[in-house]
## 1
Amino acid sequence: WNVIPGTRHHQLLHSNEAPLESELADIETASSDMDAHLALLDDEIARLKARVEQLEEERLAIGTRRQRNHAILSPLRRIPPEVLAEVFLWSLPPSYVDYERGRYDVKESPWVLTHVCSRWRAIALSTSSLWSCIVIAYSPENDSSSAYPLPLVKAHIQRSRQLAVTFHSCETSDWEPQVEVFQCLAQHCGRWVELDMLVTSQLLPLLSGLRGQIPCLRKLYLEWDDSESHPGMQSIDCFETACSLVDLSIMPRHIPINILLPVHQLNRYAMTAPWGAHQSFLTLASNLVEAWIVVDDQRWPEPSPITLPFLRRLSVSEPEVLDYITVPTLEEIALYVDGNDLDFQRRLASLLHRSSCPMQRLCLHGRPTACGTLAILQAASCIVELV
């Protein structure tokens, strides 16, 4: 089908001339011949494509078999179970991720580890520390029954040995699933080592059943949903008999009910409250090593310093707090400064003089000024580290 230059056909191909009547048959014959050849080429291309597809499928199948065969040599198969269990522990998400998500996720560790292979599942199920933390948070945005379904809560508890429980209930969400799940957790409260709880009115009466049943509880964080979360109850006494409790945080907007606690055995304390509540607490907490004191009421009685003989780390939100304590072993202090640098400077100097403590580290939060910071450092010349 190569047209020879100089011929009539070549001339027609390279111009807009109309062919003569006598030339039509030859042109149509040439087109028919080319159509036939194109059909042959299409058939050959289709055959070759089919062959390529067949070869690609065969290559994929062999590649998959090779990959599976090569996996037999994987070092993962030779990792001892105890090492793999340690790797699993590092895959656990922080508890705040679970809390912010507001519901459990089967695609997250530890649940996802039970769906990889039989060996991983066996190791995950037998590693109780993988299941030692359970986070359940209810919110108005999520269905209460889906926050952490009860059957999965039971499975989680069954696989654990000790439990660090985060349970944030919600006053405006369906309370029945919340009560059911908390009752399930409470049946195993003897294994609780930590409890982080946001209390609501429906759950508060259930706390009385914990009295004398939480011998392993070492760390307690309490918060209230609102001021209505105390239906007729005068006090919470279930934590009074927690013989292992040493770490306490109470961070409500208000404390709606009296809480009986083994104050004398605590070594860490963090609370937001009026100074009067702090004062009553600190008077009995002679074994404290660390204290975070946030004062939300500016009423200050006549100073009568409380001696905390073992306190090494202290954080305060108001400079007036420093007038009410004596801390002979204090090593670190954190101050929330907001335009009251000089007030802190004066009171800190008095505290250090009164306590004769070996303080070496100072942390300044808030909005300290340059001259205020300098004044504080001059008052605390023993400081070797400023944060």
## 2
Amino acid sequence: MNLNRSHRMRRPAEFQEIFSKGNRNSCSIMSVWVYLKPNRPTKVGFSVGKRIGNSVKRNLVKRRLKASLKNLLPNNNWVLMVSAHPPIIDVEFQTIETKLNDLLIGAGVVFEGDM
């Protein structure tokens, strides 16, 4: 799945909806909120706060999260929001990918054989 503009959450109302209706799974480096929304394309949002570091570090984390999600997402019906925690900056890309996959499996978004 491509994370083009139509698949990204942009408006504050979209983020509020996932916070109020979604389920959260967490690990030491990130949290993932998921919400099943039937008959809609999958939408993804990222939250990388200033606690992560300066803009260079935040953008690096966002690029890594997008690259990790690109191959894991289902085609339709899900709204996802990924929030990075400060230890993520010291973690290798492979670890981010593995942890994100584990969180999505735990949330029921993807299954063991999908990766």
## 3
Amino acid sequence: IRNLEFFSDFALRAAYYLGLPAHGPVPLPRIVERWTVPRASFVHKKSQENFERRTVRRLIQIRDGEAQAQELWLAFLRKHAFYGIGMKANVWEFAGVEVGKDMDAQMEKMRDELETTLGDFAFKRNGETGKKAMEVINRENFRAATGGNAPMIKKTP
């Protein structure tokens, strides 16, 4: 537990000096795993060993921090990781309601590059397989299932 407390304090101090609003460390429930295995082969079933693993966890939350500062903080923590301490990061990024339209616009910009890249592989639009794939993609039921926004669909005005 001493290593965990040390590393969580280290993480909070690093967040402070990067200007990130950090909350924590909040102690999370301890996970205890136990299992029993025979000491020897099948004949000696009565002689068994018990093993136990206790996982102690802490939660540190960064709210409303800059994305670049958060990435820098996580990279710094990974670089200076302490032995016996694992780290898991859940990162949420909030976007506006128009994010789908922005992604479609980016896809349209990348369409030419994507077609040349796909041309290097087995998928070719002008070949037999490519024609069949394009027929499937351009069917009405496929368009209805994808909302008409699947990549490489022919847009008909």
